[in-house]
Amino acid sequence: MTSPLLTSPLLELDDVVVEYPAKGRGRKPFRVLHGVSLSVAPGETVGLVGESGSGKTTLGRAVLGLAPVTGGEIRYEGRPVSRLAKRERRALSKDIQVVFQDPFTSLNPAMTVMDILTEPLLVTGVARAEAERRVQKLLDHVYLPQDAAHRLPREFSGGQRQRIAIARALCREPKLIVCDEPVSALDLTTQARVLDLFIEIQEATGVAYLFVTHDLSVVRHISHRVAVLYRGDIVETGDAAQVTERPENPYTKRLLLAAPVPDPERQAQRRAERLKATAS
Amino acid sequence: MTDVAQAPAAPGRDRLLRRTLRDPLAVVCLAVLALVIAASLAAPLLTDYAPDHSVLADTLAPMSGAHPLGGDGVGRDVMSRLLYGGRTSLVGGTLAVLVAFAVGGPLGLISGFYRGWFDALAGWAVNVIMAVPAIIVMLVVMAAVSQDLNIAMIVLGVIMAPMVFRLIRASVLAVREELYVDAARVSGLGDARIMRRHVLPVVIAPSVIQATQVFAVAIGIQAGLAFLGLGKASQASWGAMLGDAFTNVYTAPVLLVWPGAAMGLTILASSMLGNAVRDALGTTQPRVTKRPRPVVRTAAGSAVAPAEDRLLTVEGLRVAYGEKTVVDGVSITVERGEVLGLVGESGSGKSQTAFSVLGLLPYEAEVKADQLAFEGKALLSLSLDQLNALRGRGIGYIPQEPMSNLDPCFRIGFQLVEPMRKHLGLSRADARTKALELLARVGIPDPERVFRSYPHQISGGMAQRVLIAGAVSCDPRLLIADEPTTALDVTVQAEVLDLMRSLQQERHMGMILVTHDFGVVADICDRVAVMQKGRIVESAPAGQIFAAPGHDYTRMLLDSTLEGGPARGELLRPGTPLKEVTS
C-alpha cells in the first residue's frame, strides 16, 4: 500500500512476516503475520483494526523491535530497521515510542512517576535537573497535577495512569508512537477524554500514530487511514470514513455489522442486516 | 540532586526494611542475631581462656567464677568454646550464603533474562548438582581435601546454589514479561540498566528470604558434620561441643544445653526473620479459611406476597466494606421474561449489586436491604443450603471471564453434568444426554468433542457458550450476566448476544445484564438502570433512556459513546513541522 500523500512515508512495512518458533524440534514455526505492507506518513494516524489473534498487537511489537521479523522489511525514514543490532535499535528509541494497553502493568509499581518519566531522559545523558524540569512540563501537557510526580502509579486511576504512559512516550519527542489498544481498558467517559488528548498532542507536535485497536468507533474517531487485519493479513485499507461506513471486504463488513450501536431501533436494524448477511 | 527529587514514598528496599522493622517478631529476631554476632566477635574480651586450651583438672568442672559454664570432657572452658564456636557457625553460614548467591544469583539472572541456550545449559547443570547427595559430597571433600569446616561450607554453598538459581530465575522470568520492561526497552534502556532498575529490585526481596533459610540450614549441617567428629580439633564449634557433651551425656547432661540453645536460637531467629520479611512483602496469601455468609441485616419479615410476574425485588440495598459504601440504597425489580440492563462505569457498584442477589459477595462485605426477595422468598434470611439450592435452579449466572470460570482440571462434560445431577437428580446418562443437547443448543458445532475437551482446548467464545449452557442447564427463572461479552471479540459478542436473547425468549427467563456498553444495552435490554457511585440515577425503558435520557449523568455517558460520531477525515497538513512539546 502506498500512502496517498506525496510526502515520503515515515514508516513503511514491506511484506513483513513474523514467525514464532514452535515448541519442539523440527516443527513448523507459528506464522503470526503473513506478509503485511503498510505505510504511515509524518503526522498521520493509521488505525489498525482486528480481532484477537489477527496479529495486530504483533505488528505493533514488530515495529518496536519486540517481535522477530523473519521476512520482509520495516523501513523507518527509508532506512531498514527490522534487523538492527541492539545498540542501533536503542538509538531509534528517540524516534519510536509506545503506549501499551494495560495501564496497570505498563508502569513499574515500585517507581515514582518522576522516576518513570525521567528514566528515558537520563539514559540519554540529560542532566537530572533538566530532566525534571521537562517532566513537570510534560505532566501539564497530559493534564496531570504537578504533585503527581512524586506519587506511585497505584495512587492513580486507569485513565490517569494512561496519561502517565503517554507522557513517558512523549518525553523523548518521538516522531512515531505505537499505540497498542491504549483506551480499551478505560471507562467510556475516560476513553473519550484520552482519545482527545491523543489528537490534541498530535496536532501540537505532528507526531504520527500507529493506533492498534479492536474497536471500529475508536479507530474512526482517531484515524486518518485504517487498515483491517484478519488472521495475519491486511484485508482492507482506506480512509477512516470509507472503511468504517462503506467497507468493501466481507470480513470488514461482518466486523461493522457485529458492533452494536447505542440505539435500540438502529441496533435492531443492524442485527437484522447481520443475520441476513450470515444467512446468505 | 535537587530537593524536588525527594520522593515521599521511598520505593523498593527501604520501604521493605521499614515494613519489616514494624513487626515486633522481626525486631526480636534481629536482636538475637545481633547478640550472637556481638558475643562471637567480642569472645577474646568476654573470656580469658583459649577455646582449645585443655586443663585436665578442669575436666567436667562445675560452673564457677573461673568457668562460668564449667569445663567440658577434656577440661576446656565451655564458655570460651561457646563464644568461639559462634564464630565458626556464623562464618560457616555466611560463607554458604555468599557462595550460594555468588554462583546461583548471576546464573539465575542471566538465565531468566536471556533464556535461550544459556538457560538450557544452566538448567541442565543445576539438575546435575541437585541430583548429587549433599552430605556424601561434603564428607568426601573433607576426607580428601581439607579438614577445615569452612571448605565444607563452601561446598555446601555450591550445592545450595541451585535453589537460589531457580528462585531468582523464576522471579526474573516473571518480571521480564511485564509490560513496563518492554516499555523500558522501547525507551532506549540497555540490558544492564533494565536489570539494575527494573529486575534487581524485584529479585532482592525473595533473595533476602532465601538467604536467611540457606544460613539456617548451613549452620545446622555444619553442626552435624562437627558432631560426627569432622573438622579440625583446633576449630571450636557448636557441633563439636555437642559431640563432646554427647559422650558425657550421663555424667554432665547440662553440657548439651549451651550449644543446643545457641544453635536453636540462631537458627530460629534466622528463619523467623525470613518469615517476617515475607510477611512484610505481603506475598503470603490472605488467610481465607472458609467463606462465612456476609454479615446481613434486613428489615423484619421482608418476604412479601409476590406480584404474579415479579421475579426479583430489591429495595434499599446497601453494600459496605468497613467504612466504604459501594452500593447505597439501590432498588430494582425484574419481571418474568424481562431483561434489565444495569449500566455504569467501573466502581459504580453494578457488579456488587448483581453479586448480592447471588449471595456471592466476599465475606468482608456488609449487606443490608429493606427487601431482597426472589419469587417472594427473602434471600438474606436463607441458610447457605437453601441458597445453594436456589443458585443454579432458580438463579443462573454467566460470568465475565469465561476461561477463569471453568476449572482447568476437569473436562467440560463433567462440569456440566455434575450440577444437573445434584440439582435435578438426573442419572449420569440422562445428565449426559441433556448436556449434549444443551451444547448443541448454544451453537457448539461438535458437542461430543467439546464435551470431552478440557477448557484450555476451546476458544474464549466457545467457553462462554459452555458457561451459558451451564447457566441455563437447571432451568433457572432468572439469569444474572456480569459483563458476559466484554472479554469477547465483537463478532463473537454479537453471536453470544443472539444466543442469550433467543434462550431468554424461549424460556421466558428474567435477566439482569451488567454492562458498561450502551451498544449491548440497545441490543438486548428492555429496561435500563443507570448506576453512578453506588446509586441508581435513572431507571427507564430502554427506548426512553436512549431517546430522552432524564439524568445528566446518563446524558454524559451517552455523549461519550464514539459510535456515530464523525470520522476524523483525511490528513490535511502532511508533514507539519515538529514542535517541541517539552520546551
UniProtKB/TrEMBL annotation, chain A:
PROSITE patterns: ABC_TRANSPORTER_1 (PS00211), ABC_TRANSPORTER_2 (PS50893)
Comp. bias (Basic and acidic residues): 263-280
Key words, A-Z: ATP-binding, Nucleotide-binding, Transport
Spans annotated as Disordered: 255-280
A GO term, aspect molecular function: ATP hydrolysis activity
Protein name: ABC transporter ATP-binding protein
InterPro entries: AAA+_ATPase, ABC_transp_ATP-bind, ABC_transporter-like_ATP-bd, ABC_transporter-like_CS, P-loop_NTPase
Domain ABC transporter stretches: 11-256
GO biological process, one term: transmembrane transport
Keyword Glycoprotein in record: no
Lineage: Bacteria, Bacillati, Actinomycetota, Actinomycetes, Kitasatosporales
UniProtKB/TrEMBL annotation, chain B:
All copies of domain ABC transporter, residue ranges: 312-558
Parts of the chain that traverse the membrane: 25-46, 90-114, 121-145, 151-168, 203-230, 250-269
UniProt KW Transmembrane keyword: yes
UniProt-listed GO biological process terms: transmembrane transport
Entries under SMART domains matching the protein: AAA
InterPro entries, per database record: AAA+_ATPase, ABC_Ni/Peptide_Import, ABC_transporter-like_ATP-bd, ABC_transporter-like_CS, MetI-like, MetI-like_sf, OppC_N, P-loop_NTPase
Protein topology in the membrane: Multi-pass membrane protein; Peripheral membrane protein
Subcellular localization, as worded in the UniProt entry: Cell membrane; Membrane
ABC transmembrane type-1 domain: residues covered: 86-278
Gene Ontology CC entries for this record: plasma membrane
Keywords, ordered alphabetically: ATP-binding, Cell membrane, Membrane, Nucleotide-binding, Transmembrane, Transmembrane helix, Transport
Alphabetized GO MF terms: ATP binding; ATP hydrolysis activity
Family designation: Belongs to the binding-protein-dependent transport system permease family. Belongs to the ABC transporter superfamily.
This protein's name: Dipeptide/oligopeptide/nickel ABC transporter permease/ATP-binding protein
Species the sequence originates in: Streptomyces spongiae
